[in-house]
Amino acid sequence: MHAEQTWADLTTAARGLCVGRGFADTWVKTVTRAATVNRGTFHHHFSGRKAMFAEPRTELLQQVAALGDATAEAAGSTPDTPPPMRPAPSREPSCGGAPPTRCTVN
Mean per-residue pLDDT for 43-53? Predict the structure, then answer.
């Protein structure tokens, strides 16, 4: 459980720093300071800075997919079965007593 908490602390610190500073100015050193861990601990969890941001991105994509599945389920459909489509509005001619050559389509 401790390793999972450390990983969460590192990714939370990295996200916060990246939002505030941008990726270019978010370094391993600043992340480890913010997460209050040493660089060895960081490298136990990630091979480097890019790897640190790849995992949260993958996690975020998984969360978005789960949200999409939950939304589809709530709407009565699944990812394999789209929700039913509404019927198209009627396009019957409306002549209103006029000769057929002057009919309009609704």
Answer: 85
